[in-house]
Amino acid sequence: METTRQSKVSRLLQKDLGLIFQQEGRNLFGGKMISVTTVRISPDLGLAKVYLSIFPSEKSEETLEVVRMNTKNIRRILGTKVGKQLRVVPELAFYIDDSLDYIENIDNLLS
What we know:
Monomer. Binds 30S ribosomal subunits, but not 50S ribosomal subunits or 70S ribosomes. This protein is an alpha+beta fold and about 110 residues long. Helix content is about 55%, strand content about 20%. The chain has helices at about 5-30, 60-70, 70-80, 100-110, and strands at about 35-40, 45-55, 90-95. Strand 1 and strand 2 (about 45-55) form a beta hairpin.
């Protein structure tokens, strides 16, 4: 069960990380379109699990590795954006959100 504070911080991180991926995506990730679908934050606000949707999804694992290699840089940029609102910028853990691929697969099976 998420507290009100957790949900507010999750929404804040999702919005700001989405902007970071939109602005820095061309430089860091080779023009891949990366969107933040969900952010789940721990009760102590120390760890944020960030679920990413990557398009095109053929080389999503490789793109995720590039994102993970740039985690410190992303966290630094995030700290400049949310530094006045959060005491501690949470550690970031990135995962692939494959729910869109799952929905597409179900749709193909039904038709």
